[in-house]
Amino acid sequence: MTRKKVKLAFITNDSARKATYKKRKKGLLKKVSELSTLCGVDACAIVYSPYESEPEVWPGPVGVQLVISRFKRMPEMEQSKKMVNQEGFIKHRIAKANEQLRKQCKENREKEMTEVMYQCLTGRGIQDLMMADLHDLGWLVDQNVKKIEKRIEFLKKMAPPQQAKPPTTPPGEPSMPVDGIPRTGWFNQWMNNPGQNKGSGSGNEMTMKFHENHNFMWSSAFFP
Amino acid sequence: MTRKKVKLAFITNDSARKATYKKRKKGLLKKVSELSTLCGVDACAIVYSPYESEPEVWPGPVGVQLVISRFKRMPEMEQSKKMVNQEGFIKHRIAKANEQLRKQCKENREKEMTEVMYQCLTGRGIQDLMMADLHDLGWLVDQNVKKIEKRIEFLKKMAPPQQAKPPTTPPGEPSMPVDGIPRTGWFNQWMNNPGQNKGSGSGNEMTMKFHENHNFMWSSAFFP
DNA sequence: ACATCTATTTATAACTC
DNA sequence: TGAGTTATAAATAGATG
């Protein structure tokens, strides 16, 4: 788990597997001993490797015997209860992994569309985008506009209008002058009335570039 | 182990211990399963906690039984061999910790003396330093001088002398103009002949400040 | 094969809700 | 209490000697 995220599967390369085995066995035994010390519980670990004739154990054979005998003394019924526990453990892990997958996909998609958006700002056409892409792009643009508006509101409160000092732009956020022109929901508004050109000359560079430079054609073919 | 490096000892706070137990048990079982998967070995872990009536195990009671029976089948003699293994494990860890301790002490000492050195450069006297401190301080100064010389050599090679462009100083290293005056081992030289003032007017700011501002008295009382 | 180093991932202590 | 978050320590994959 470093230098590269390792795939959780049998390592086919023999020497790599052995190296990993040694490192991880050491780490594992350390973990058992720590758990035992920190929480004052009885615990043991047994590992059979093809590299040693005897199993490698913690906390030594005697301790292992003690823990084992305690385990063996349990009725079968109770023992199998833990089987569920084990299954639950795996299930939980699967559920969690799925959750992560979902999040990651969403994040990827957002990054993808951000890339597309920036390309649009530097001359890319959007004729070849599919409906789904256009939809997400629109959403993304609106998100950005919302951010900008928030920022504008913030700056208005900070700096009284007559002062009009140039704001410092925090890194990572798009910069925009505080010109006091409201743009609330422009994208959605425009979606609903694509033909209605306000002609206000407000000069929002981002949005102007967005539909001036290209054959902009979100027609009824796309929005029936 | 985070937010704070935790001391490896029984956690007295009950709720903290339980929280730690849950987290670490989970981590431990994950580790066993990973080791088993990645390296294709049989392994098991058993943990008895006061928090559950049954032991928590990996890889489920049946798997544990298998591993245990394999372990039990071994003759006593061979089992106890692993006892040594366990001892060796601990011994190795102790040796390693000692090694780390030594390194850390050295590092600490160096930082300490670096601090003193900088204090000297901004007006601190050295009358109250002990022999050992003075010795180490001297060593440190020499190290720095050596670094500076290396840098000078490097810059000489990079920039031909007639060009004399001002060098960019890498962060963390003391800055010094490339004036071509050799200073090899000045500290040791001077140690051997403290009275011999070269009077070259070379203007090494660091060293000048070092013995001009204070009652500099490394006499024969200190160097017999 | 083994120890060491470094970049990165993983585990997790303390915090928050 | 327990689940989720964050900052930091620990584990470790891959490289190197």
UniProtKB/TrEMBL annotation, chains A, B:
Compositionally biased tracts (Polar residues): 186-205
One Pfam family this sequence matches: SRF-TF
GO BP, sorted A to Z: positive regulation of transcription by RNA polymerase II
Locations listed in the record: Nucleus
Keyword tRNA processing: no
Ranges for region Disordered: 159-205
Domain MADS-box: 1-49
One GO cellular component, as annotated: nucleus
Keyword Cell membrane carried by entry: no
GO molecular function: DNA-binding transcription factor activity, RNA polymerase II-specific; protein dimerization activity; RNA polymerase II cis-regulatory region sequence-specific DNA binding
UniProt-listed InterPro entries: SRF-like_MADS-box, TF_MADSbox, TF_MADSbox_sf
Biased segments, Pro residues type: 163-174
Transmembrane segments annotated in the record for this chain: none
Top-rank taxon: Eukaryota
Keywords: DNA-binding, Nucleus, Transcription, Transcription regulation
Name recorded for this polypeptide: Agamous-like MADS-box protein AGL80
Gene name of the record: LOC113715758
